[in-house]
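Repro case for the chain-ordering regression, as requested:
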Amino acid sequence: MIPIEKPLINYMQMKFGVLVFPGSNCDHDTYHVISEVVGQPVVFLWHESEQLENCDAILVPGGFAYGDYLRTGAIAHFAPIMQAVKKFAASGGLVLGICNGFQILTESGLLPGALMRNAGLKYICKQIYLRTETSDSPFTNLLQPCQVLKIPIGHMEGNYFCDAPTLQQLEAQRRIAFRYSTAAGEITAEANPNGSLQNIAGILNEGRNVLGMMPHPDRSSEALLGSADGLRIFQSMVATLAGQD
Amino acid sequence: MKSASSSAIPLPAQITPELLAQHGITADEYQRILDALGRTPSMTELGIYSVMWSEHCSYKSSRVHLKRLPTESQRVVQGPGENAGIIDVGDGWACAFKIESHNHPSYIEPYQGAATGVGGILRDIFTMGARPLAVMDSLRFGPIVAEDSAKVDGENSTPTSLLNKNHQILEGVVSGIAGYGNCFGVPNLGGETRFEPCYSGNPLVNAFALGMVRKDEIFYGKATGVGNPVLYVGAKTGRDGIHGATMASEEFHEGSEQKRPNVQMGDPFMEKLLLEACLEAMQTGTIVGIQDMGAAGLTSSSCEMGSRGGVGIEMELDRVPQRETGMTAYEMMLSESQERMLLVADKGREQEVLRVFAKWGLDAVTVGTVIAESRLKILHHGELVADIPNASLTDEAPRYHRPIGTWKAPVPSEPSAEILKQLQAKRDLTTDLKKLLASSNICDKRWVFEQYDTMVQTNTAQGPGGEAGVMRLKGTQRGLAMALDGNSRWCYLDPKLGAAHAVAEAARKVACTGATPIAATNCLNFGNPEKPEIMAQLSSAIDGIAEACTALGTPITGGNVSLYNETKGEAIYPSPVVGIVGILEDVSKAVPADFQRTGDAVLLLHPKAPAKESASLKEFGSSEYAKYFLKALWGTPPALSLDTEAALHKCLAKLADDGLLHSARDISDGGIAVALAEGCFAHQVGIRVTVPSGLSDDPMACVLFAEHASEAIVTCAPESVEKIKNIIDDFGFLTVGPLGVTTADRIELSVNGKPIISESIANLSGPWRRGLSDALESTFHRDSSAMDQA
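-- result from build under test --
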């Protein structure tokens, strides 16, 4: 576990926007982490809006956008707000998709590959371990390479898949941000909860400004909840934004 | 809106004895309908009476007994009679919670039955203005593995086809709960899953939900203000679930599966939208009263809201949003389509409500008006189709003092000579412990609860798998702990004592976290109340709950009664399930159930003197060990002293508040040996302990596996032991005994200085962890009898 330090940059005000789709249910959780734990301004952005309200970073929260009765994220991709998010991402803005948010980002084409149904065909909610595969990103720059994080998952469709050329590209460009691992950081089949290709738990886009991950840093940013390891991801974003100004 | 003309009366139905029988209405009850109306009812009216007077809606067999339950305390804001009970938890916050059964639908269609059970209880919570923050489930199934399936009364074991059926029901129920709760976005904080042969034809699915609301922003299911508009919001009405409440008030016979169309279909996404829209609409200040359409749908919501407010409601069914065409008034009034609410708004401000529902993409339509006369008036295609005094459907519905039989002990009070011989023979107790840990009732329930989202909303301090679920209350220092419990085998042996144990154990689990138990909810699952022996069980169980809740300071704020849990004339064990909610002033002081580190002292808090009439061998017949290894059931549940139990809870709260405990767990199924072993598994911490030997002539199995009330195992830093002893002296009925220490890697138990069990943690945790998944994944049991069923 990483000792929690005081908020890194008290004087910087980074505005976060949390997307709200009908059926988002981690929107309040993500909002809570930013406002109460990270200590930064945050607003909700309604799915029908096309305005990002001058946010410095966008969070696509977990949940079941539009019920996810079709393929997960397939409808959310058409929401007006997502058109604005695509433009924002294209211009280098930071976008973090968590769980259903990751699924929405792959459906929207902001990230490659797809999230299939878990290998065990069941929803899984539990604490798992992740190994940090790169600290060279706006989301992981406060983490050490190979640092192991304890962060929970909660999903039915988290089985990451992409074709061989894409995988090769992800590896070559060091765009795999996290892999499922043991507590000691070994990448094993037993440590893979959902059958993901190469234990992939999170990936970056080519510009490294979009991260999608299945595990929930929003559920692991306070020690009372069992782990505060996820907080470093949000703090990395703040540090990056502070550095840009 | 067109008003009902006073001269018109609804078209009388052609009443025949067959028609009344189909509606579950007796001749006496029909006479009461004639008296209430002063005329022959219409078909729609007959249907309305049929559901409102069903056991499920009217509590006609249980109501006279439920009055004996304690329902008041300083903290109770709302007791039984509303959609959910509410208690004050301080700082202007109140907590709404309740448990409800969905047993019958879950047998017929496991996935949808269980899913809509969760949906129904969630609506009961948010209709009061509370955002649901937690759910728990108490599940009972028939056996899924042959080893567990021998009936204790010596009948043949469960046939393979039935094991498969039980397995199928379990899979369906768990996915139904997961599918609904996960999509809705409410964490599952625990519950229990148990197996007994009596649930093969009658699984129990009891769902609990809890939500938080500002004390001054509570909403009630009460219509007021003559002329105010009545709004229908949420999903459209279809033909699903018609007569669901009546079905839930009957026994199952051959062919009950044909009642599948009576089971409702759940849409958790719709429910999530309904939640957000309702809570947002409540903020507009224009909502006068609101109630969900649960059992008996439009009927119960309209007549109950009218009745509570002393007014009436007139509705025009043509305005009701419909999913199907050509529905009759009868079908619409009896539909149990899910995710619907009825609300009364301030006249002239409806638009503000409609705007919120439009934002969330939901139907919201004015379907009626509040009228002065306390009647339910229904118009369809311009005709008056029902016109019924509210009181006759609610407060004046039939109530029966059904005959109560004399309760007789169903089994001998002493073990047979044969059993005694088996008990006294030399046994490999390490193997026994391993098998017991792997048995369906005791093993790890991870296979179940990992399918539930246990962390959404980021309040979960302790999820399933511990003693009780613990959640923080954001914006305060406080936390709430909650647990469900019920041991139906004990209730079968002694309904009153067994039911008191359900309260005591649920409260003990809550107390182990350091929380103070403050209120209770109950779900009474029993057989056919028309049988005097079943009424005897029900009445005694209520007495047991009443006594225990009074002694432990946990009034009942609501709940549910589910009767007619019988298939082909065979009733389930009497199965009261009790939910207890407790409060932690400082959630950061919550005590975990698992041993945390090596080098800690292990202590046993226990009664100073054995409870009155405690007799270990007689009580051992009620244990999981006796059932599992000896295939026998005799004697009585463990003795219970409620004074000692209350002292234990207060003592645990004090020790936790002083920060002295590293872990605390109660001793339940499988006795002290199982409790000690289970404490080791989560953090791979070993123990070296001496188990108290009890009466000198007790068989060793009895020493290790007997189940007792009012005991807890705690671990603490060695230097805290003296402090703990001093504190316990202040709690008259209790004392503390040293058991031993936590160690690195082995589980070592000795008795009277003699080593009895010594095993690596892995060799015990493996079978425990794999017990349920092995049972489920090694089946289906493909053999000839299963093929025959196909």
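Ordering looks correct now. Chain B is about 35% helix and 25% strand.
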